[in-house]
């Protein structure tokens, strides 16, 4: 993981710090993630995994607040579902297409990473709060500390552990915002990809195999076209992220109800109070 993190940093560092310098004008006197009030009840974290579209009818009926990743925003609004919060971490120009830059978002709070896309930050019509990525292995004790430096420059915004994808940050934000349960949907940790993995190598297969014969488990796996063709589960990546996710989300504190049917969360990757439920039972 250390080598992977180093490669990511080298690839993106120029974009991240250019974005940070442009966002500083909005961030310095803006709000921080921890300035948001907590919800007393459950909150839903919605990501753009293969189970997202199937969840739309249930999300339309719920009264619970929704934290959505940026990629879900337009599909949610099109389905007449207004999330309370949208999380955006990517600094690329490509994510601008995920955002409607009009008054349809005026009642939505954007939770944005300091290194995120500055055009989105500038044109967003709703409320905006900020979070900072932790760049150091030990920000509290490291001297000099890049993380502490950007925190001071930003007027002490909330520092979060980088988790590698927007879905995890949506879950993380929901965890900050509730004193009750976090309900996950679309948080499948799946990626369109190149290197298809054999079913037997995935945590999802192992989870099904405990209850089903090999033949039935394979049939169940193969019936999900999204798993075998367009999407692949990247278990090895998430095994590497296990400690980071557990430290950031601390699932032993809050109940986590996972309604994402293709997900590996709650099998052997994360411990704590994580349970599977169908979305119609969870909402």
Describe this protein's structure:
With 283 residues, this protein is an alpha/beta fold. It has two domains: 2-188 and 243-282, no CATH class; 190-233, no CATH class. The protein has eleven helices and twelve strands. The protein has helices at residues 2-27, 52-61, 73-78, 118-123, 146-153, 166-177, 203-209, 214-223, 225-230, 235-249, 279-282, and strands at 31-32, 43-46, 66-69, 85-88, 109-113, 127-133, 158-160, 182-185, 190-192, 231-233, 256-258, 274-276. Strands 1, 2, 3, 4, 5, 6, 7, 8, 11 and 12 form a ten-stranded parallel β-sheet that branches. The protein has a two-stranded antiparallel ribbon with strand order 9-10. It is globular.
Strand content: 15-25%
Characterize the largest beta sheet: strand count, sense, and whether it forms a barrel. 10 strands, parallel
Q: What Rg do the Cα atoms give?
A: 19 Å
How many beta-strand segments?
12
In a few lines, what is going on in this structure?
By secondary structure, the chain is of the alpha/beta class. It is built from 11 helices and 12 strands. The longest helix has 26 residues, at 2-27.
Summary tags:
283 residues; 2 domains; 10-stranded parallel β-sheet; two-stranded antiparallel sheet; alpha/beta; globular; 12 strands
List the helices and strands and how they pair.
Layout: H1 2-27, E1 31-32, E2 43-46, H2 52-61, E3 66-69, H3 73-78, E4 85-88, E5 109-113, H4 118-123, E6 127-133, H5 146-153, E7 158-160, H6 166-177, E8 182-185, E9 190-192, H7 203-209, H8 214-223, H9 225-230, E10 231-233, H10 235-249, E11 256-258, E12 274-276, H11 279-282
Parallel strand pairs: 1-6, 2-3, 2-8, 3-4, 4-5, 5-6, 6-7, 8-11, 11-12
Antiparallel strand pairs: 9-10
């Amino acid at each position: 993981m250390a080598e992977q993190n180093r490669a990511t940093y080298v690839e993106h560092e120029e974009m991240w710090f250019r974005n940070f310098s442009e966002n500083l004008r909005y961030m310095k006197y803006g709000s921080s993630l921890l300035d948001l009030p907590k919800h007393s009840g459950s909150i839903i974290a919605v990501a753009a995994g293969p189970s997202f579209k199937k969840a739309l009818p249930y999300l339309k009926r719920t009264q619970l607040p929704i934290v959505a990743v940026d990629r879900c925003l337009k599909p949610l609004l099109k389905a007449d579902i207004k999330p309370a919060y949208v999380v955006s971490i990517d600094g690329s120009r490509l994510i601008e297409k995920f955002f409607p830059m009009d008054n349809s978002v005026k009642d939505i709070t954007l939770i944005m990473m300091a290194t995120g896309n500055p055009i989105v930050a500038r044109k967003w019509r709703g409320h905006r709060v900020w979070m900072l990525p932790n760049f150091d292995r030990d920000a509290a004790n490291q001297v000099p500390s890049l993380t502490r430096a950007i925190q001071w420059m930003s007027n002490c915004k909330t520092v979060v552990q980088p988790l590698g994808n927007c879905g995890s940050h949506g879950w993380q934000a929901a965890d900050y915002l509730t004193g009750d349960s976090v309900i996950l949907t679309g948080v499948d940790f799946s990626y369109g990809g190149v290197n298809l993995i054999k079913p037997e190598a995935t945590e999802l297969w192992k989870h099904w195999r405990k209850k089903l014969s090999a033949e039935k488990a394979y049939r169940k796996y193969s019936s999900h076209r999204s798993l075998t063709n367009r999407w692949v589960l990247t278990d090895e990546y998430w095994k590497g992220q296990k400690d980071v996710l557990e430290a950031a989300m601390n699932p032993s504190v809050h109940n986590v109800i996972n309604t994402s049917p293709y997900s590996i969360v709650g099998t052997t990757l994360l411990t704590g109070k994580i349970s599977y439920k169908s979305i119609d039972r969870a909402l």
